[in-house]
Amino acid sequence: MSGGAEYSVPVGPIHAALEEPVLFNFKVDGERVVDVEVVPGQNHRGVEWMGMQRNPVQVIYLAEKICGICTVCHAYSFVRAVEHISGIESTPRADYIRAILAELERMHSHLLWAGIAAHEIGFDSLLHYTWKVRENEMDLREMITGNRVHYDMFMIGGVRRDIKQDQIPKILETLKYYKDNFEKLGKLFLQDKVIKMRTQGVGVLTKEDALKLCAVGPTARASGVPKDVRQDQPFGAYLDIPVKAITPDALTGEVHGDVYDRIIVRLLEVKQSIEIIEECLKRMPEGPILAEPNITRLLIQLKKAHGEGIGRHEAPRGEVYHYVRMDASDKVTAWKVRAPTYANVMPWVPMLKGQQIADIPIVAASTDPCMSCTDRAVVVKEGQKPYMISGEELHKMSVEKTRRMMA
After folding, report:
1. What is the distance between the alpha carbons of residues 57 and 59, in angstroms, rounded to a whole number?
2. For 43, which DSSP code?
3. How far apart are CA 140 and CA 145, in angstroms?
4. What does the pLDDT look like over 115-168, one tens digit per residue?
5. Which residue ranges in the chain fall short of pLDDT 50?
6. Which member of 38, 132, 158, 266 lies 3.0 to 4.6 Å from 94 by CB, making a disulfide possible if both were Cys?
7. Distant-in-sequence, close-in-space partners of 277: CB < 8 Å, separation ≥ 6
8. What pLDDT is recorded for position 15?
């Protein structure tokens, strides 16, 4: 019971209850959260600045490494932005390969999240089972791309590797494995009494708050907001294969906007991704996989490009957005990335208010946050415009701080 006194409890940025480096400053009354302040900015890596020191082709590999899970969606969005500026169009076959890779990544991301969610409520046997199931999908991506995590598949104007005819039976076999196991996964996550008790009515985000706070991805869809870039502004293969945004009422007939509904949305999206991949394999046309296979000619063409472009994609966590500017030089002039977690930071506040302290880990994890995608840093001196710190200045400041800490 509460004694009527409020206490401040910081959680993070490094904490056993959190999977991502973010700081929460909680005010608690007894075991209940009264208020919360979210403090991101603990994991800035200067990725955008590094990208502006490279040519567009080199930036692709940097974009892929913004996130180890969303490696496809960042590369996809970046190349779309550059294609927008340069007038280069991806080939029809490459569009389908891109969609297949994106949906495989969605399956992987949602299965990985499901395991982490189970871990956050202390159900580690379900974590181990879910990640065991996930291994087949990772093996499949290794067969197609050569890598299990970062794939180096995207190129401006297409993709770097084809999906060969003799690989298709293995892809279909793996998809069948997931269809055969889908019912079991659904039963484990949606019918288990412990999971229901820990997730139903917990971390509620109303539809009104989801719209007001601009939530995206499964976080928004679980609150009854049917938005999805693939549905609302289709591109590539999604122009031929319609995608309908999934909300929890598709299974239960109701929308509560709680952690349980976020589980429902992600599980149904795994099934939807399987169907999209199967349809892509049926419809994938023959033809080249690159608009310009000669890298020298491509770089010459890109060096002439001038203007601004945007690239959007429905990443597993929601809409990812890349803004690029090029000024007819050998480097990218400006690059700005808005990852889905950026939009899902503020929805944490209404989700966490009123919850028990013990529910903080699963509520925080329910948006599937990725702080390495999200954190940005701008240095501002009071009364002056923002300025950039040089490498030498940053090194000097780091040495001085280290010395102060060791004194």
Report:
1. 5
2. -
3. 9
4. 999 999 999 999 999 999 999 999 999 999 998 888 889 999 999 999 999 999
5. 1
6. 158
7. 99, 100, 103, 104, 171, 175
8. 83
Torsion angle of alpha carbons 342, 313, 76, 140, nearest 10°?
100
**pLDDT value at residue 70:** 87
Q: Which candidate, 254, 236, 144, 133, places its Cα nearest to that of 189?
A: 133
Predicted pLDDT at 1: 46
Residue 291 vs residues 95, 112, 158: alpha-carbon distances, Å: 11, 34, 6
- Report residue 106 CA to chain centroid gap: 9
Cα 130–131–137 angle (5° rounding)? 105
134 Cβ partners below 8 Å, 6+ apart?
A: 108, 111, 112, 115
Q: Which residue has the tokens 């500026």?
A: 85
257: its two tokens: 């906007």
| Closest residue by Cα to residue 55 from 263, 328, 239 | 328
* Residues whose CB is less than 8 angstroms from the CB of residue 333 and which lie 6 or more positions away in sequence, other chains included: 52, 325, 326, 327
**Residue 260 CB contacts under 8 Å (≥ 6 apart), including other chains:** 190, 195, 196, 199, 200, 201, 202
Residue among 107, 130, 73 nearest 275 (CA): 107
Indicate the residue type of 45: R
**DSSP string for residues in 109-164:** HHHHHHHHHHHHTT-HHHHHHHHHHHHHHHHHHHHHHS-SS----EETTEESS---
User: Rounded to 5 degrees, what angle do the CA atoms 68, 74, 80 make?
Assistant: 160
Sheet holding 6-11, edge to edge: 6-11, 23-29, 32-39
Hey, CA dihedral for 196, 198, 199, 202, is it positive or negative? positive
Structure token digits, residue 119: 């871990």
Burial of residue 183 (CB within 10 Å: 0-12, 13-18, 19+) is: exposed
CATH top-level class of 47-374: mainly alpha
C-beta of residue 116 within 8 angstroms of C-beta of residue 19 = yes
Report how many helices (DSSP H) and strands (DSSP E) the chain contains, helices first.
Answer: 18, 8
| Vertex 88: Cα angle to 84 and 90 (nearest 5) | 100
CB atoms within 10 A of CB 322: 30
